[in-house]
Each structure stands twice: as structure tokens, then as C-alpha cells.
Design brief:
By secondary structure, the protein is α/β, with parallel strands linked by helices. It contains 10 helices and 17 strands. The structure holds ligand H79.
Length: 444
């Protein structure tokens, strides 16, 4: 038992379902990694980090004082909460989770707790999270705050020895990082979490914790849980630490082959190879890959939290914008087969050329031809490879009464036969969409 019971320990299954209902309906969210690391944008004193951009301070051993200097140059006048929310909406995303403070300790909000924040330490002087909260509220988009609670490289006591000592060359900690972890929790992390929960007209829908280290003991995590318990609608993930399971599993940068039956889960993945902006990372995934990810995840009962990384001006890189619009175009036609849809009835790997092994991060992504999602009276088959003549599937657990293509606005009935659960549906010669055409199988 936990030192302090969390909401998940106290609520009934029905209460839990009610709390998770909007999240399960949503299926597709926008992750935003935006912080002070956008200023160096992956490069410092002529050195380029080969790792993820938001880790630059750690990777290049930037001293605390030098890192803090970036704030004097952070003036993201190109940031528009309105445009970002409009982008999420157009992309078909139903919620946003944005970094309120990453491991570097810089708060992207108006924090009275610590002056190392976007209002007090930069020429910008405004709170982007406030604007985002207002725009999300207007647009009906849910909002979550990512908060790195278990490490903070600029707060005394907060720096975790993730890679041994902080400075690779000298082997020493930056003296500015010395201090007690308990003091850090008490004087920074917990007060800032309280601020995030109470600063704005409406409390956030999600708190997204990260990197639960062993220092996050049950007793320490319990102090955070006391705060979270004040917000009975709040959803929080499995990364608080201290043995708290939270509401969601959070596979990072991969899609588990089986999903997590009986448990809510969300794959967080980024659109290129970094979370926080790096000027030289142009390895953007194709719209086809991104849509495949969304559909694969949905077919296993999970959510897709797709990350974008705005630059130091607050602008979303154009290749990211393009891909999100393209996804939104597909969802505008086919969203019915995603939002509120449940996992496949055919087994997670049906439609694959070669089934994956296990549920852990695969070494390569196994190829597949189709994925299926489910609603009460509909089975959706997302066809990526277009079958010649007809679609054949076995062990269909429902009696099908009509088959049609979702992208055909007239929903013209397709001929089919079904015997002993074996279904064959006649298809037109060509797919209706170059990426995925959805076949609907209706039942009474
Ligand atoms: O916020 C994003 C990441 O920064 C964060 N989680 C996502 C959502 C994250 N923190 N830690 N990790 C992910 C895993 C850490 C990997 C590490 Fe490394 C390997 C840390 C040190 C070695 C990657 C490679 C970062 C620096 C070098």
C-alpha cells in the first residue's frame, strides 16, 4: 500500500471509467517540447549535440551559469497560442501536453516559486501557458502540463546523476547543483506543481511526469500525491515514481506489439529525432509513417501523443506543420474509425506480414497490410496494401449486414459473403486514399 492513497486507489471502476472517458475518446494528442533549450537549438560553442535537443545542457556539460544566460536571449515573439491550438485542431488532435518545466529546470510559466522562468528571466515576460490554457478552453481542446519532477539540473539538489557525474571532463558536479533533493522537492517541484494546478481559470486535464529516479521514494512521491488528490478529475501518467502506477502506461518512441489490455496507454513519439528543437534535425517522419503509427496504436487500444518542437521564436517548423495538416485531412474523412474506437477483435498482430515478438521496443518495425479498430456496431479495417479484387478475413466475430468504404460519401454497399466467420468483401479496383482506405463492416 502507498503511504498516501492516490485517486486510482480510492475510486470505483465506474468512477475510473468516467474520469478516463474523454481521454479514451481522444486517441490523438499533441506533445509540445518547448523550453530554453530551443535557444541553443542543439549547438553550443560550435559543438553539436548528437542526442535529443532538450538534453543539451547535460550532454555538452554546460555550466549552470552559462545555461541560465540563454534566458536573456529568449524572446519568442513568434509564439501564437491561437495558431498552435488551431494547428492541433486542424490535425485532428484532441489534447495538448506541453512542457511546463523540463530537466533543465526552466519554467515556461509565471512562477512565483522560482525566478528561473519565462516571465521573470526573459525579455518576453509573458506566460505562454496562460495563453495556451485560454485558447484550449475556447477551442475545446484538453490541456496537459508535462513537469519533470525527479530531476532539475539548475536547482540546488535537483541534478540527478543520470550519466554518473555531471561534468564529463572534470568529473565534478557544478557547485550550483549541490543541495538536498528533499529541499528541491519542498521548495521548487511541489510548489510549482501547485502553481500549475491553480494558476489558470481551469485546472489542467493532465499532469505528465517524467523520469522517475530511485530518489523518488514512496514517501517523497506521496507528498506530490497529496497535491494531485485535490484535483479529482486530473489524469496523470505512470512516471511519478515511488511505486505509484498513475493512470497510463507511457511507452516512449515505440509502439508495443500487444498494447496493454485492461490498462490505458499512450505512445509518445516525436516527429523527427529530437523532442526539443534542434536546428539541424530535419529527419521528419513521413505523413504515411505518422498515420500508420496513429492507426497501429488505435488498433491496440492506445493513444498517440505526437511531439512537435517549436523554435526559439516560438514557431513550429514548417515541415511539422505540413505533416499535421496532412494527417488532419485524412482524419476529417476517416476520423470515425479512430476517435472513440477500441482495439481490434482479430488479435493485435492480425494483418501483419510477420508478427512481432513480445511487447517491448522492437528492433525494427514489422510490416503489415492492415489494422482494425472497433465500435459497437462497426468493425473498421484500415487497408494500407490494397488487395486485388477482394478483402479476405477469417474469424469475424459478428454477423455483418453491410460493407462500405468510409471515404465513399455515398456509402455504397459492397458485395460480400460471410460463412462460418469467413468474410470476403469485393473491392473496387483502386484504393480511395494513397495511404489508408477504411473498410467499414456494419453489424446489428
Ligand atoms: O522529454 C523527453 C525526454 O527528454 C525525456 N522523456 C521524453 C518524453 C527523457 N528523459 N530521459 N529520457 C528520456 C531517457 C534518457 C536517456 C538517456 Fe541520454 C541516455 C540519458 C542519458 C543517456 C539521451 C541520450 C539523452 C542524453 C543522451
Amino acid at each position: 500500500p502507498h503511504p498516501v492513497p492516490a485517486i486510482q486507489d480510492k475510486e470505483t471502476p465506474a468512477q475510473h471509467d468516467a474520469r478516463m472517458a474523454w481521454w479514451r475518446e481522444a486517441r490523438f494528442g499533441m506533445f509540445i517540447h518547448w523550453g530554453l533549450y530551443a535557444v541553443p537549438a542543439g549547438e553550443w560553442h560550435g559543438q553539436r549535440t548528437t542526442h535529443i535537443g532538450e538534453w543539451i545542457m547535460n550532454d555538452l556539460s554546460i555550466p549552470v551559469a552559462d545555461y541560465k544566460q540563454f534566458a536573456t536571449n529568449f524572446n519568442p515573439t513568434g509564439f501564437s497560442a491561437h495558431d498552435i491550438v488551431a494547428l492541433a485542431k486542424d490535425a485532428g488532435m484532441k489534447y495538448i501536453v506541453i512542457t511546463s518545466k523540463h530537466h533543465d529546470g526552466f519554467a515556461m510559466f509565471d512562477s512565483k516559486t522560482d525566478p528561473f522562468n519565462i516571465v521573470a528571466a526573459t525579455p518576453f515576460k509573458k506566460d505562454p501557458l496562460r495563453e495556451l490554457a485560454e485558447e484550449c478552453h475556447k477551442a475545446g481542446i484538453r490541456l496537459g502540463f508535462y513537469y519533470s519532477q525527479a530531476q532539475d539540473w539548475t536547482a540546488p539538489g535537483g541534478a540527478a546523476a543520470v550519466r554518473g557525474t555531471h561534468n564529463k571532463e572534470t568529473g565534478h558536479w557544478d557547485p550550483a547543483q549541490d543541495g538536498s533533493f528533499d529541499d528541491y522537492l519542498k521548495t521548487k517541484a511541489i510548489p510549482q506543481i501547485k502553481e500549475l494546478l491553480s494558476n489558470y481559470k481551469t485546472a489542467p486535464d493532465i499532469i505528465w511526469f517524467d523520469t522517475p529516479t530511485s530518489r523518488m521514494t514512496p514517501e517523497r512521491a506521496a507528498e506530490v500525491v497529496k497535491v494531485l488528490n485535490q484535483y479529482p478529475k486530473l489524469i496523470w501518467n505512470n512516471r511519478l515514481g515511488g511505486g505509484y502506477k498513475g493512470d497510463t502506461e507511457t511507452p516512449e518512441q515505440y509502439i508495443p506489439a500487444q498494447g496493454y489490455p485492461g490498462r490505458d496507454w499512450e505512445s509518445c513519439m516525436t516527429i523527427n529525432d529530437t523532442w526539443g528543437y534542434k536546428s539541424f534535425d530535419t529527419n521528419f517522419k513521413s505523413t504515411e509513417t505518422l498515420l500508420r503509427n496513429l492507426i497501429d496504436i488505435t488498433s491496440k487500444g492506445g493513444n498517440y501523443l505526437l511531439n512537435i518542437g517549436p523554435d526559439a521564436q516560438g514557431k513550429v517548423p514548417e515541415p511539422e506543420v505540413e505533416r499535421l495538416h496532412a494527417m488532419g485531412k485524412w482524419l476529417a474523412v476517416n476520423g470515425e474509425a479512430v476517435y472513440g474506437a477500441k482495439a481490434t477483435l482479430f488479435g493485435a498482430e492480425a494483418g501483419s506480414f510477420a508478427p512481432a515478438e513480445g511487447n517491448a521496443k522492437p528492433k525494427f518495425v514489422p510490416a503489415w497490410e492492415w489494422r482494425s479498430t472497433t465500435k459497437a456496431n462497426r468493425i473498421y479495417i484500415h487497408l494500407f496494401a490494397w488487395p486485388k479484387g477482394s478483402f479476405h478475413v477469417e474469424k469475424v466475430p459478428r454477423t455483418i449486414t453491410k460493407a462500405y468504404l468510409l471515404a465513399d460519401s455515398s456509402h455504397k454497399a459492397l458485395k460480400f459473403t460471410q460463412r462460418d466467420g469467413v468474410l470476403d468483401v469485393s473491392l473496387p479496383e483502386k484504393a480511395l486514399d494513397p495511404i489508408a482506405t477504411v473498410l467499414v463492416l456494419e453489424s446489428k
